[in-house]
Write a structure and sequence with these properties.
metal-binding; Rossmann fold; alpha/beta; 25 helices; oxidoreductase; 16 strands; single chain; two-stranded antiparallel ribbon; thiamine pyrophosphate; about 40% helix
Length: about 725
């Protein structure tokens, strides 16, 4: 019976609507009987005695009173065996409870079965909002909604479903332990419970986290969003966010004014991305992160370069010069909205130096994802940052590409592998609700574009991008999650694309209904500033002064960008390979030969195992012995030659990483660089890491059965990170 009830208690519906019938059906058959008379035939009599006792303990013989008080009788609340639920109900089972009436009077009466079931129904109602509230959240700033989900309110979020009616709304209930909506209050009216749940789960934030296996993580998220004191910002935080939104919005306006016919892949419609990213960086920097490696598609790249990395505006504006040759851009020949940068500067909010690397990305959208992860892992490795406390990654995505491109799925599956993890990535989706010209209903089969993230238990926070306060709260919680749990998290910024796919594209050809609505949208800067001025959070003259200040910065940068020196600047490179070529001539290369003595040393050591290590007999008695004999004859085969080559690089002090499918043993059972103890699980030995005390580290790791993502990851893992240019904090 416990197994049956435990499964029912996990389902909010069954645990309330069918519990009385379940109790009647199974009580006699499944109760543990300390006395023989407790059988099915006498069950009804015992139930009647219990109900009589529950109303007045003095109305029954004292032996019955003792029997029920000592919980020998397994009464209905004991059906709920989950710790949180049983603890919640146990408070109500053995004593009189104080239940407040809707009029404010306090009535003291025994807790009867209806009270128990009603409290269980309240717990189920709370759980339903936590699990399903996102389905009716107001996420779309256009108000079109429901290309993703049916807009009809789920039955589980209605009073009728739990046998409540209007007359119950002012009854007070003790809050279950699965929620934090009460703050300091231990009980609330049903009306207030529903109001708070609606505000948290069904307004401009939609939360998906109930599928996470860890109760600690689920409770942490609940508290961050349900506790009334969590969603509060100081005036200085609001003013800082306004300044950032001014920069994001006015930068786009300036580009549109100066280069109206140029492709820019602007951020209009999702300008909140800039203050959102800055809030993330402020939060993680305050917790010790000093390096943030980013990857993103075209849309918004110039704005991120200008207002997140704070790349000098002159270097961006000069790229619009029509006389600029491809070879002038540091030899890349690529367009400006594909390029990256690497800059180190002061982050004012945390008062710490932070290094930003925005990785260049081609038109292949999500191709940059594993490259960013490999670069992040390389930084962590060379800095000894074993837990990702100093170096982290942020990946930006479009909604259509995030749902449609397989490399996203491949990269997620690297996220928790020991040899590939970067200890948590923050994913931000600029959800335009369209892919180039393709409607989401034609582009994916899943309800949300984010559903791929659920495979690794990553929480997903959907948020209406026109509600700036909600966006700032969501991204702050996401940054705290990454620093605390070192796991991936996804932020779905539901926004719109004010222009077409690019600024010279005509979207009305294919999305007339959507773009009629977009043309009516008030720019988010004006909408939010008007609201803040109205409620007294900021002053009109302060805001206007900030606008004037940034306009001057833009004008001065435009004038300075005429200097041709800016076009030659190499800070468009996200990282450099210093000293890759040495020497003279058309193809210079270093001397790579090693002495025979060195090769002999390597050959002697790569087949030694620690004392007590149980090596497979075939390896010990045949394969390794055969190779030892080859060494004595001054002969090598492929496997031995490979080991000598890798070993010689390690002895020079260089890190070597060999990654891929089945590389540890070798597909043809030839390499055997990772040896397994035959009698102990998960006990390994890597002989190549024991050649010399001064050698480089040898990382050899089997990958997931991926091709594209692992290749991209290793592209950057092979680079030794170099310092970025350090820039003074830009004016303004």
């Amino acid at each position: 019976m416990e197994r049956l009830v435990s499964s029912l208690s996990r389902t909010s519906v069954a645990s309330t609507r069918y519990l009385p019938q379940l109790m009647r059906n199974v009580r006699g058959a499944h109760r543990v009987h300390p006395e023989s008379f407790l059988n099915g035939s006498s069950s009804n009599y015992i139930d009647e005695m219990y109900e009589q006792w529950s109303k007045d303990p003095h109305s029954v013989h004292k032996s019955w009173d003792l029997y029920f008080r000592n919980e020998i009788y397994q009464r209905p609340p004991a059906l709920v065996v989950r710790p949180s639920s049983s603890a919640f109900l146990r408070q109500k089972q053995t004593q009189l409870q104080t239940i407040s009436s809707g009029t404010g009077d306090t009535l003291e009466h025994p807790l009867d079965m209806k009270s128990i079931l009603d409290h269980m129904a309240v717990q189920a109602l709370v759980r339903s909002y936590q699990i399903r509230g996102h389905r009716i959240a107001q996420l779309d700033p256009l108000g079109l909604s429901s290309v993703d989900l049916d807009a009809e309110k789920p039955n589980e979020l209605t009073l009728k479903f739990y046998n409540f009616n209007e007359s119950d709304l002012d009854r007070k209930f003790l809050l279950p332990p699965i929620t934090f909506i009460g703050g300091q209050d231990k009980e609330l009216s049903l009306r207030e419970i529903i109001r708070r749940l609606e505000d948290i789960y069904c307004q401009t934030i939609g939360l998906e986290y109930a599928y996470i296996n860890s109760e600690e993580k689920r409770n942490w998220i609940r508290q961050k969003f349900e506790d009334p004191k969590e969603k509060k910002f100081e005036i200085k935080d609001i003013e800082r966010a306004v300044k950032r939104l001014i920069r994001a919005s006015k930068f786009e306006d300036y580009l549109n004014k100066k280069w109206v016919a140029e492709k820019r892949f602007g951020l209009q419609g999702c300008e909140v991305l800039i203050p959102a990213m800055k809030m993330i960086i402020d939060t993680v920097a305050s917790k010790g992160v000093d390096t943030v490696i980013m990857g993103m598609p075209h849309r918004g790249r110039l704005n991120v370069l200008a207002n997140v990395t704070r790349k000098p505006l002159e270097e961006i504006f000069c790229q619009f010069d029509p006389k600029l040759e491809p070879s002038d851009v540091s030899g890349t020949g690529d367009v400006k909205y594909h390029l990256g940068t690497c800059i180190e500067r002061l982050n004012r909010a945390s008062n710490t130096m932070v290094k930003f690397a925005l990785v260049a990305n081609p038109s292949h959208l999500e191709a940059v994802d594993p490259v960013v992860q490999g670069k992040t892992r390389a930084e962590q490795f060379y800095r000894g940052d074993k837990n990702g406390d100093k170096v982290m990654s942020i990946l930006l995505h479009g909604d259509a590409a995030f749902a449609g491109q397989g490399v996203v799925y491949e990269t997620f599956h690297l996220s928790d592998l020991p040899a590939y993890t970067t200890h948590g990535t923050i994913h931000i989706i600029c959800n335009n609700q369209i892919g180039f010209t393709t409607d989401p209903r034609m582009a994916r089969s899943s309800p949300y574009c984010t559903d791929v993230a659920r495979v690794v238990n990553a929480p997903v926070f959907h948020v209406n991008a026109d509600d700036i306060s909600s966006v700032l709260h969501v991204v702050k919680v996401a940054a705290e999650w990454r620093c605390k749990f070192k796991k991936d998290i996804v932020i779905d910024l539901v926004c719109y694309r004010r222009q077409g796919h690019n600024e010279i594209d005509q979207p009305m050809y294919t999305q007339p209904f959507m773009y009629k609505q977009i043309h009516k949208q008030i720019p988010i800067l004006k909408k939010w500033v008007d609201q803040l001025i109205s409620d007294g959070s900021i002053k009109q003259d302060w805001y206007e002064a900030e606008e004037v200040k940034y306009q001057k910065i833009l004008d001065d940068a435009f004038t300075n960008s005429k200097n041709p020196a800016y076009a030659k600047d190499k800070s468009w490179l996200d990282s450099a390979w210093k000293g890759f070529f040495i020497g003279q001539g058309p193809f210079p290369y270093p001397t790579t030969g090693v002495s025979e003595e060195t090769l002999q040393t390597i050959g002697d050591k790569i087949y030694k195992v620690p004392k007590g290590f149980n090596l497979h007999d075939r390896l010990k008695e045949r394969i390794f012995q055969d190779r030892t004999k080859m060494l004595q004859k001054r002969e090598v085969d492929w496997a031995l030659g490979e080991s000598m080559a890798i070993g010689s690089i390690l002895l020079d002090g260089h890190h070597v990483r060999l990654s891929g499918q089945d590389v540890e043993r070798g597909t043809f059972s030839h390499r055997h660089h990772v040896l397994h103890d035959q009698n102990k699980d998960l006990v390994f030995h890597v002989p190549m890491n024991y050649l010399s005390p001064t050698q480089g580290h040898y990382t050899i790791c089997n990958s997931s059965l991926s091709e594209f993502a692992v290749l991209g990851f290793e592209l950057e893992m092979c680079r030794v990170p170099l310092p970025c240019p350090t820039l003074p904090y830009p004016a303004g």
